[in-house]
Amino acid sequence: MSTSVNKLAAKLSLLPLLTFVVLFLGAGLYLQSQGVDYAFYQLPAPVAILPAIVIAFLVNKASINQSVETFIKGAGHNNIITMCLIYLLAGAFSAVAGATGGVDAVVNAGLSFIPASFLLPGLFLISAVVSTAMGTSMGTIGAIGPIAYAVSLKTGIDPALMAGTIVSGAMFGDNLSIISDTTIAATRTQGCEMKDKFRENLKIALPAAVLTVCLLVFLTPEPQAVAAKPFDWLLVLPYLFILVLAVAGMNVFVVLFSGIVFAAAMGFVGDYQAGSFVKDIYKGFSDMQEIFLLSMFIGGLSEFIRINGGLDYLAQKIQKLTAIIAKWHRKVADQLGIAALVLVSNLCIANNTVSIIVAGPVAKKLADDGKISGKRSASLLDIFACVMQGSLPYGAQALLLGATFKISPWDVSTSSFYCFILAFTAISVICLRRNKV
């Protein structure tokens, strides 16, 4: 009797999370059918999750005071608070470096070195570098998209191919960057260091990038020169600075704080003002408000799921689905389970960071059961979330580039070749290097 009661409690503990996903996805689909721009981003996720939190309180078999304590314990977990603080610093760095002209400098530095016959792969690499430096695919697309559109018109390159190339590079950097919110979420939920996840991730992403560059070289039409605007090398240095410090293994808080100061210092060499510096830091904080609140709310919700056995229940269900593969190799099965978990989450939510936060606790359970390292599970979470996000025609990336290039978002997502190659590469690594996890 107690077993059936426990199983029922575990199932009910998942109801709030399911409510959040259905509400968020349902609102997006409805607004999409009404022709609303960026339909899946009209209902803010921190608001969509509020009814789910109410349901979590109702189904939890405890007093209201105990339920409040449970929620606060989850929201205030060390990993959640650490993640939120990193979000704030990452947002501040991105805002300061962008305000000083760093993004334009990186883009034009890249364009000045691209041979005409290497246009598509060159733009892929520029997008990859900018996204890795900025930590955001949307920021990269917003900066490079209009430039790429102008290049497309000038050279006659298929707009869908050009847009897909920009998404591809943007998702490469979003997946790898140490200041990306997807990296922050993946490493904190899986309990690993950013530098370890970066190195593990690079083993999969770099071969996929090389294959993508080879494909784009083949797809680039007759060469046409593209002029780059003047730029200041000093403004490129802050991005290189934090990347070097992060790979060297320095504490992430020190890396980001140092990056903010360094970016401001490079700006002060020009006409950047101290008053603007203070305001840009706060703007960076404000830009992270949504993911900050959502992370805390998801943390509180996850604690209800954990104490009622929901995580164990989900892990067991995934392991049953991968049971046939597990007979051949348990670690392969659990890694594919993590991939499937975050793919489905992102398909429903259309936000790679949110999908990682949602799937993270279950992925951690699968990783622990299968003796998979935190760096590998974090890498897989981030990789497959970015694979799905870059392939979604209703994802923000495809919608923004579709509007910029005046083409269908479907054309953008189906031309994002890197995302498909990354999925193939990741699955190959899972199967071929099955004991090195």
Automatic annotation (TrEMBL):
The chain crosses the membrane at residues 12-32, 38-59, 80-103, 109-130, 204-220, 240-270, 336-359, 415-432. GO terms for cellular component: plasma membrane. Keywords: Antiport, Cell membrane, Membrane, Transmembrane, Transmembrane helix, Transport. Residues 11-218 form the Na+/H+ antiporter NhaC-like C-terminal domain. It is a multi-pass membrane protein. It is found in: Cell membrane. The keyword Cell membrane applies. Pfam families: Na_H_antiporter (PF03553). The keyword Iron does not apply. GO terms for molecular function: antiporter activity. Belongs to the NhaC Na(+)/H(+) (TC 2.A.35) antiporter family. This is Malate-2H(+)/Na(+)-lactate antiporter. The gene is mleN_1.
